[in-house]
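Researcher: Batch entry, complex prediction.
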Amino acid sequence: MADVVKTQRELTRRQFLGTAAMGMTLASAVRGTAHASPERAAAAMRAVVGDAPVGIGKVGLDMPPIAENGNSVPLTVSVESPMTLAEHVRSIHIFAEENPLPNVAHFYLGSLAGKAQISTRIRLFKSQKIVAVAALNDGSFWSGSAEIVITLAACIEE
Amino acid sequence: MARALIRMPTQAKKGEVIEIKTLIAHPMEPGVRRDSTGRLIPRHILNRFVCTYNGEEVFRADLFPAIAANPFLTFFTVVTASGELAFQWTDDDGTIQTETTQITVV
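Model: Structure tokens for the complex:
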């Protein structure tokens, strides 16, 4: 016990800072692999759209700007489309950049869908940007996004 | 069988666009949480939802752990004829739950 105390006392400021810095680097490295990042979200999005360009617009995301609890956040996504046989939305894909898994949901609309609007409730790990991508029948892709602040994250408590 | 709720009009005019609300009891365990002993709780979610109208697919969803517990989904359909709407949820363990409702064209 006495030895331990002595060792701690002998630890210089430089050693302490070095150890602390290493710990922080390790922590951020682990964090980087365990959680999603905008890059992983972009990769998840590319898996859906391929190399096609994604326009900004037509897609609206309706969700509260701030949520107390990330376990259940209401989300409504809508796409400006007449939903006729000639012009309709084929699918809508939702991504959360900072969630452990960036995919949230893929929605596929049949020819009877009538209106390109879907509501659900989602889990968010922390404050972040939510992106929705819509695939239209003419082959074009459109996206919309919304920022949300979470004060209590999902996925951490038992 | 988990408790499922479907809310939609039972009567509508032909060509009308109606809103369908669905809710089903399910923990949607995301697979990233730990219990009090530090063990990872395995993922257990409903990964797919399909709605068909007289056999034709209206709406389909691939769900991920980011969908909140007791999945709630709202979507729309055009009313074409009297008949049956079927709602089907697929669990990670392979079980499928199906609910049906009737609609009458007036």
